[in-house]
Amino acid sequence: MDNIDNNIILSVKNVGKSFPGVKALDNVSIECRRGSVHGVVGENGAGKSTLMKILSGVYTKDSGTVMFDGETIEHTTPIQSIKKGLSIIYQEFNLVNTLTVGENIYLGRFSEMKGMRNIHKKARELLDSIGSTINTHRMVGDLSAAEKQMVEITKALSFDSKLIIMDEPSSSLTSDELKQLFVIIGDLREKGVTIIYISHKLDEIFELCDIVTIMRDGRVIDTKPTTDLDRSEMIAKMVGREIENEFPPRPHCVGETIMEVKKIRTRKLNDISFTLKKGEILGFVGLVGAGRTEIIRAIYGADKTKELEILINGKPVNIKKPIQAMRESIGLVPEDRKLEGLVLPFSVQSNIAMASLKGISKFGFVNASKEKEIADRQIKNLSVKTPSPHTKVVTLSGGNQQKCIMGRWLEINPDILILDEPTRGIDVGTKYEIYLLIKEIAEKGGSVIMISSELPEVLSMSNRVLTICEGRITGEFNPEKDSAHDIMDAAIG
Amino acid sequence: MNVNVMTLRQQTIRVLSKQKAVIAIAIMLFVMLFPNTNFYTPLNIMNIFRAASPDLIIAFGVTLAVICRGCDLSVGSVMALSGIIAIQLINGGMNIGLAILLATLSGSVVGFINGFLIVHQKTEAFIITLGMGMLVKGVALLLTSANPVPAKNMSFMMISNGSLLGIPNIMLFMLLLGAFTYWLLRYTSFGRNLYALGGDYEVAEHSGINVIRAKWVAFTITGTYAAIAGVLLASRLNTGSPIYGDAIPLLVNCGVVIGGTSFSGGVGGVVQSFIGIMVMQLLVTCMGALEVDRFIRMLVLGIVIVIIICMDCYSIKRKKEDV
Amino acid sequence: MTDQLRLKSFNLGKFVIEYLVFIAIVLLVIITAIVEPRFLSAENFTNLMRQFGPLSFVALGMTFIIVGGFIDLSVPGMISLVAIISLSLVDTIGEIPAILVGLALGAAMGCLNGTILIISGASTQAKALFITFGMSQVYGALALIHTDGTSMNRNLLEHEMPLTRVLGSGMLGPLSVSFVVFLFFLTVLYIFQTRTFLGRSINYTGGNIVAAELSGIPTKRIMILIYAICGFMAAVSAVVLFSRVSVTTPTVGMNYERDAIMAVVVGGTSLLGGRGNVLRTVLGVSLVVLMSNCMNLMGVQSHLQEVVRGAILVIAIWLDHRRQ
Q1: Is residue A246 part of a domain?
Q2: Which of B22, B40, B142, C70 gives the lowest tally of CB atoms within 10 Å of its CB?
Q3: Dihedrals φ, ψ of A37, to 5°?
Q4: Among A96, A116, A135, beta carbon nearest to B204
Q5: Domain co-membership, A226 together with A375
């Protein structure tokens, strides 16, 4: 290995990673120069997080090599990679809220530090070195997001990190706090620390980064100095994929308005209002955490709201609980299949019939033969691959599990069906089947709200698209006319 | 560098502001000013502390379990058992020190088994310690045939009933163990790791803390403390009885929670538990001084406990539902 | 994939754990019959049916709580209070009304438990455990206050209690009356649990309360319902209890929560919720009753029996977690 360039701190070569049914990373290669700020951009699901998790040792790669600071890294755990000098600051902070700032910085190293007093002293020195005045005795839970980020950065510095990866560091910062973060990043760069800066916000990338890597579909599309790129070109590279026969032709059966959302207000959402028409597929586009799921949970009565005004067929309705939403003929296929959708230890039949039980009960007694009919019908309809209706749903593949939940709602046949990430973690074949189902619902006159992190999916399926950013609706688009580029632009905000 | 120095006063205010329990104590002390009782005599106050000592010792141990998001409902039975073992061994002619050591170890063993089942086998702490409590109580009943065992050795009695500089020994033991636990939780890496894993198990694990060992040790200590309390109580009453600890698990776990050590883990400490237990003890003493019927006392205590736990649950619920 | 493979290959360990309670019952019967021939006598059979008594009713109620994913430690308090209140009302309002009041009181206490849990947002088993533990204290104290700590003697009441006498010692052919009552409740509750919408909803709630709520199952109503059932069944067992003995103490319900949980878990209903039914509980109760019967026949000291029971409870909880 004599061709090591001393200026390259991190070199990723031909790294691949697959999850069941999904190829998350495909032949990814990136080189980071010492002391640079390296931006990584891409849509949700482009593979950025997977790559970072491989670097930090949370996942192991299937193929390829990773060289860090002149050393090949094979198997590593998060703590080992931090000790080697590679730290990651996640979007969800990795801090214990009930401990003090100083303790969080030296978490897991208390015995090496010889006494709590010493810990606070050292932490103070480090915080001073990046110009932060946070009291090391304060509880992390009481800190603002910006302060927590300082603590994370300080924690990374306490390990003498040579490379710090920041995953969406700006998502919870105000603009003043962001400026401060930029100053700190500038200081770190001068000290020779390399930063990998992951963000959706292109302005930040242009302001901060020396070089940027654009990822899409688990592949690196391009790596260029930021000065050689402009915003429009970057967006084009982020979204520009050839849409083949991945999707069925979209249905066109939009009719009268069925639901009018006048106002939703919660801590996170601000004055959301939109309409949904009969036979329409309405897509929600936005980044993870923009408030997409919160909107539909509010409509469905799953979360509490400060204000909620909805008209269905022109009549105001009062929805406080999911059961009331169901009475208004709304159905929800939730985001997290395993936690919110399925009763894992139960059979396929029980899971499919779950929402219909009340309907097939007479005098409180469930009609067992009808229950079996429902399960058989939906299993056949959706071609769920299961040995029998009595197989436990936990043993099925993700795609078939999702079909069970879809079947649960198709049986009730609600006027409005809300699908939150209906194809997450599902193999390509099953995805197509689910698209066909969605199409069929719309053709039969049902209305669908579809949330997805995969832009092409929303764009190819929907009749209309709303972009959501930071708890607001920022735009309304017609995916057949408007370009993916503009839509992405509105969603990034 | 004055930003960094959190004065003792600031820290005290911080602890007090979170202490609804302190207010409760203040109210009770205020109420006791009125009726014509000899509540405010040094002797009586000493008695209150002395009566609370075994509960306090157990509470210090339970604090460790609650901090790492567990709880221990076997402490009552462990306390009863260790007292019985100590007295029976001494009555059988064993050296007092050795007997006390063995009795204490019995608690460590139960705590160790609890830890094994909870940490290693991943059972739910509350249900498995409930079961262990019943098992241990069975052993206590078996050893005594359900009868109280009087101690024949006077020097054993003096362990708790003697005094040093006018302070009863049992109180001294309580203060010593309290100070030790305080140090353990605040200044040792073991203690801080415990807070870390109670606050966020995954972050702690990823930070390279040996979470399994820390939690296991915590439960063992909890058992040991309960056994120490048992020996001291047996010495004070000069009797061991299998029914001593029946109300303890509920009282102590609730006392710890009143003090501010929440079931959601990662917060609390010795001082908080001390205050929490004193609320319970004062409540009992006040009702005693006011000559409240003993069954009504039980009722009030039960209601207070339910309200306290409900409040703990409610605040967690409110935090989650914040819109 | 691995799950399917595992299903195909016969796994002895899994088989043993799954059918442990059957195996244990069969072994127990064989061993006891060999060691102690009296075990198979008609007299002992009657005895066994009687021992089934109060515990079996509480265990049926507890099954619903545990299947729903919760736990109820307030059983001792509820039993004591119902027994005392019913007995003390007999002279003023007559036997049957008194018993009815007792049953209603049990259901009402259950509803109260459920309501408190919902209001305080105690959605986990651990929180439910502490709150019901406290409620038990409250109910128990009320029973003690009512009698001022003294016991109640049924024979000293002015009113005759024919129904109670029949329930306590009557026979219906080869079966004791209380056993027939048990079979009645078992049938009703089994049908309720497996055939009705509400009964099925309990399973869904215990299996995944979030998913159940999102699929339109009224989980809050279910919580109140299961606690009401448990309270009612505790009241039934209180009536059976005082029908057996002439003297009823205000702490008569002690330890029933432990034995009921033990019977339910030993029967194979999971503490994690969602899985199990009342028939399994019958197996669990049978094992508990058979065990104490054969320990009695073999002359095992009663306190050693306590230890054995505690050990079985711990092992049952442990195995329950291992099974998942």
Answers
A1: no
A2: B40
A3: -110, 115
A4: A96
A5: no
CB contact under 8 A, A395 and C275: no
ipTM of the complex: 0.81
Q: What is the pLDDT of residues B237-271, one digit of tens each?
A: 888 888 777 778 878 888 887 777 777 777 888 88
DSSP letter at A321 equals S
Encoded tokens for C308: 């054995």
What CATH number does residue C132 fall under? 1.10.3470
Q: Determine, for residues A366 and C200 on separate chains, whether the beta-carbon distance falls below 8 Å.
A: yes
C223 interface with B at CB cutoff 8 Å: no
Domain ranges, residue C158 = 54-291+303-317
Query: How many folded domains does chain C comprise?
Result: 1
* pLDDT beyond 70 at B177: yes
Which of chain B's residues have a Cβ under 8 Å away from the Cβ of C120?
309-311, 313-314, 317
B207·A108 Cβ contact <8 A: yes
C-alpha separations of A111 from A409, B10, B17, B205, B269 in Å: 55, 27, 31, 16, 20
Is A55 within a domain?
Answer: yes
CA distance B217 to A114: 21
Dihedral sign, CA of B12, B14, B15, B20? positive
On whether residue C26 sits in a domain, the answer given is no
User: C133 touching B, CB under 8 A?
Assistant: yes
Using a 10 angstrom Cβ sphere, with 0-12 exposed, 13-18 middle and 19 or more buried, the burial of residue B93 is exposed
Q: Is residue C8 part of a domain?
A: no
**Contact across the interface for B121 and C318, Cβ inside 8 Å:** yes
Any idea which architecture B49-317 has in CATH?
Orthogonal Bundle (1.10)
- Quick: pLDDT tens for A84-126: 888 888 877 788 888 888 888 888 887 777 777 788 888 888 8
Contact flag A322-C216 (C-beta cutoff 8 Å) = yes
* Same domain, residue pair A317 and A445: yes
User: Of A321, A340, A343, which is closest to C207 when you measure between CB atoms?
Assistant: A343
- Set of chain A residues whose Cβ sits within 8 Å of the Cβ of B6: 135, 137-138
Cβ-based neighbour number of residue C164 at 10 Å: 22
How does pLDDT run across A289-305, given as a tens digit for each residue? 788 888 999 999 988 88
Whole-structure pTM value: 0.83
- Residue A448 is which amino acid? V
Strand A330-333 versus strand A416-420 pairing type: parallel
Over residues C289-308, the mean pLDDT reads 84
Query: B193 with B93: CB under 8 angstroms?
Result: no
Q: Let me know if residue C42 belongs to a domain.
A: no
Chains in touch with A (≥3 Cβ pairs < 8 A): B, C
Output the six-digit token pair for A183.
Answer: 């100053």
Q: In this complex, is the C-beta atom of C205 within 8 Å of any C-beta atom belonging to chain A?
A: no
Pairing of strands A464-469, A472-477: antiparallel
A36 lies in which domain range?
8-239
Long-range contacts of A289-294 (CB under 8 A, 24+ apart): A289/A91, A289/A171, A290/A468, A290/A469, A290/A470, A290/A471, A290/A491, A291/A468, A291/A470, A291/A471, A291/A472, A292/A420, A292/A451, A292/A468, A293/A335, A293/A420, A293/A451, A294/A266, A294/A268, A294/A269, A294/A471
User: How far apart are alpha carbons A366 and A369 in whole angstroms?
Assistant: 9
- Report how far apart, in Å, the C-alpha atoms of C210 and of each of B234, B263, C69, C215, C272 are: 49, 21, 12, 9, 14
Contacts of A334 in chain C (CB under 8 A): 211, 214
